[in-house]
Design goal:
Strand order of the largest sheet: 5-6-7-8
Order of helices and strands: EEEEEEEEE
CATH topology: Metal Binding Protein, Guanine Nucleotide Exchange Factor, Chain A
Number of helices: 0
Shape: globular
CATH architecture: Beta Complex
Structural class: mainly beta
Length: 93
């Protein structure tokens, strides 16, 4: 079971992650949505497509743009369509 933890709180947990470029991509149903806040930030990866970001909020503290996902990835990255990955201090193990 892989967990994503920030500020001592499990924000995602799954036995079904997809690992690409050393990042675990969690299925959307295995993410605890109550800790997520929409963001308008996007970035573009040449082979995966446009990433959309979300901020994480735990105990009133916001970690801006600490989660990302590809709602409509390029064909080469279709395995991570809609799945969520983390960075910016989120521990995934």
């Amino acid at each position: 079971m892989v967990q994503a933890i920030w500020k001592g709180t499990v924000i995602a947990q799954s036995a079904n992650t997809v690992v690409i470029e050393n990042n675990h991509y969690f299925p959307p149903g295995d993410v605890k949505r109550e800790f997520f806040k929409p963001s308008s930030t996007t970035t573009v990866c040449p082979w995966k497509g446009t990433a959309h970001y979300q901020s994480i909020v735990v105990d009133g503290v916001e970690n801006t743009d600490a989660a990302w996902y590809y709602p409509d990835p390029k064909n080469a990255a279709d395995a991570i369509r809609g799945r969520i990955a983390f960075w910016k201090g989120v521990t995934v193990s």
